[in-house]
Amino acid sequence: MTLMNTPRISYAHLVTTVNPKHVASLVRFFGHGAKSKREDGYGIEIEHLPVRNGTDDAVNYYEPNGIETLLNRLRPYYDADEEYWENGRLVGLGRKGIGISLEPGGQFECSVGVLHRPEELLTEYGAFRRQINPILDELGFRLINYGYQPKTSYADVPVNPKSRYDAMTEYLGRVGKFGPCMMRCSASTQVSIDYQNERDAIEKMRLGTAIGPILAWFFRNTPYFEGRTNPYPLLRQLMWDALDPQRTGITPGLYDPRFSWEDYAVDVLSTPLMFADLTHTPEADGLPDSQKHRVAFRDNAGEIYPDRELNAYEINHVLSTHFNDVRLKNFIELRHWDSLPIDRAERLTEIVGSLFYDDANRQRLESYFEGINEFDVIETKTDLQAHGAHSTPYGQPLAFWQEFLGLEGLLADEPGDPRHPHVFQA
Predict the structure, then answer these.
(1) Cβ contacts of residue 70 below 8 Å, gap of 6+?
(2) Could you tell me how far CA 10 lies from the centroid of its own chain?
(3) Which of 323, 201, 319 is nearest to 254 (CA)?
(4) pLDDT confidence band for 12 (50 / 70 / 90)
(5) Among 67, 133, 234, 322, which is most exposed with the fewest C-beta within 10 angstroms?
(6) Which residues face 142 on adjacent strands?
(7) How far apart are CA 355 and CA 363, in angstroms?
(8) What is the C-alpha to C-alpha distance for residues 123 and 129, in angstroms, rounded to an integer?
């Protein structure tokens, strides 16, 4: 590969715009996530699109026999002390090993973990489906795995009753492109992995950012967009890259050899929060709810939160308003992939394990990508969007990457092709 010299992105001009106590809070949070003893854990999030049997129209939270009814029918299977309510309405459930939450358009997310073998996903997810499927049959709808609603337009999908989603709608409806589409109609599969220390975390973030677009191609699963055949090779990547560049895409400076957790913290804290969440900020007690969740076009964390160390809820909120291809929390979140049926989600988890937890394989990959920078990744993402099956990521054809990344057996056809096994997958 011909790689450009790695640029140094200086954050010195940003230091005065962030609170040093907030920076220290995030860096400490990252440190607490490090596993002193290697565990090789996985967290899997699969978002499902609810569609009505017979019509494939999107099912929303509020309609009779809709998402709210489904959540209430599921309550006996989950722990009472892990129910999540907002504005007097049920929006989430939890028990050991599984969490249920809602994305803005009623996308039904199942979070599974921590797992230590990819095949455990089939067992845990199987239990979830055995409990939910009979209820779905009675309610007359199903949960499908596509990257985007197959029939209904975003304009016809209301957001669920979480207050933050009203603020998000206002923000993302005015900034960038595809915000309402992403919020209301898209669905993903995300895989989270462990790290042992700062260096290990950053190396995994670099590797995940580099290979993520290629894996996204082989695991793409979005045959439809806005009720028509999807014309985009990688719709999810296109939506996120155009959503709001100050918080999406590649982490600025990630490939600089001096990049650190502090740099990541400063980048996150310097960015407008999109929406403020003061529901767990003691100093905001007494404010009306409309002020605790409000749009934040210009205000960053230092302009919203007090001059003190951030608490755990505030830290998680700040980090969750960034949507990089690979996101750092107290774990590493790989965010590239469309919603996948469980067999392909399990295969994806196997591949992630082979790339990040197999020491010899990871060393081989890191050696190959030595010297890469963010401009090379951008070029590869653009190449895949422009040329699809004829693209040459990092100068190599897709057949090379299929073998190099251990992707043998994955189909290379388009997800809308009738031969594809997951068309109309429930």
Answers:
(1) 50, 108, 132, 135, 136, 139
(2) 27
(3) 201
(4) very low
(5) 133
(6) 51
(7) 9
(8) 10
> Maximum Cα–Cα distance for the chain, whole Å?
60
What digits encode the pLDDT tens for the residues 215-271?
A: 999 999 999 999 999 999 999 999 999 999 999 999 999 999 999 999 999 999 999
In whole angstroms, give the CA distance from residue 187 to residue 276: 24
Chain mean position to CA 392: 25
The residue whose two tokens read 């026999």 is 65
E-state strands within 80-219 = 84-86, 89-95, 98-102, 108-115, 141-144, 188-193
**CB contact at 8 A, 42 and 114:** yes
Say how many Å lie between the first and final Cα of the chain, rounded.
41
Contact 159, 169 (CB under 8 A): yes
Q: What residue ranges define each of the domains in the chain, with the CATH number in brackets?
A: 12-404 (3.30.590.20)
Token pair belonging to 25: 């809070």
Share of the chain above pLDDT 70, in %: 92
Out of 12-21, 103-112, 385-394, least confident range: 12-21
Q: What is the CA radius of gyration of the chain?
A: 21
Give the whole-angstrom CA distance, residue 275 versus residue 292: 9
Tokens of 293: 């969740």
Average of per-residue pLDDT across 384-411:
93
How far apart, in whole angstroms, are the C-alpha atoms of residue 376 and residue 385? 14
Between the alpha carbon of residue 183 and those of residues 8, 10, 46, 169, 247, the distances in Å are 34, 33, 15, 8, 15
Strands 293-296 and 274-277 come out as antiparallel
- Record the pTM: 0.91
Type of residue numbered 51: V
